[in-house]
């Protein structure tokens, strides 16, 4: 029911099955998986080298900023999902309405910011990928495309988290 910032009463027993079935928890898990995929693809296959030069370069048009941006927002999104997942676990135990308010506002603000940052990341990675020469990437192309794809999906998963926080 109603109550202060999404919970009627503080306290009560923790029910794992009921908790995991909550839409915001499912959206948070999906967002964490998407973030994990993006930064894992970029860390694993985001950098490559050619036989003539052992120097590593980013597969996105040799732009190291593209790889760093994708890895950065992916890692921070994953860590934030873990943090807010723990907040979701302990939220029913918090009886102070001021604390609840600040946690909900933090979730709302962070979800809004990360929705925007994923949009920027998708546009940036897509733009850099469009300028990448096909003869410079081989196996890494699949990971680069996966990072772009899951950056796109992350826009919607974080937008969903924004909606649930609102």
What would you say this structure looks like, in words?
There is one protein chain. This protein is mostly helical and 166 residues long. It has one domain (29-164). The protein contains five helices and two strands, in the order ααββααα. It has helices spanning 16-20, 23-45, 64-90, 97-130, 140-165, and strands at residues 47-48, 57-58. The protein has a two-stranded antiparallel sheet. Helix 2 runs antiparallel to helix 5, helix 3 packs antiparallel against helix 4 and helix 4 (97-130) packs antiparallel against helix 5. The longest helix is centred in the last third of the chain and has 34 residues, at 97-130. The radius of gyration is 19 Å and the shape is elongated. The two termini are 16 Å apart.
Features:
Marvel; 166 residues; Synaptogyrin; mainly alpha; transmembrane helix; two-stranded antiparallel sheet; transmembrane; 69% helix
